[in-house]
Amino acid sequence: MKSTLLAAAIALFGTLLGTRWAISILVKHHYGQFIRDDGPNTHVTKRGTPTMGGIVIILVVDLAYVLAHLVFPIPEPTASGILVLGLVTALGFVGFIDDWIKISKSRSLGLHSYAKLALQTIVAVAFGILCFCFPDQRGLTPGSTAISFLRDIKWLNLPMWLAVIWIVFIVAAWSNAANLTDGLDGLASGSAAMVFAAYALIALWQQRQPCIGDRPAALCYSVRDPGDIALVALALAAACFGFLWWNAAPAKIFMGDTGSLALGGAIAGLSVVTRTELLMALVAGLFVIITLSVVLQVGYFKLTKAIFHLPQGKRLFKMAPLQHHFELLGWQEITIVIRFWIICGIFATLGVGIFYAEWTTGLGS
Question: Which of 73, 83, 21 is nearest to 271 (CA)?
Answer without folding.
Answer: 83
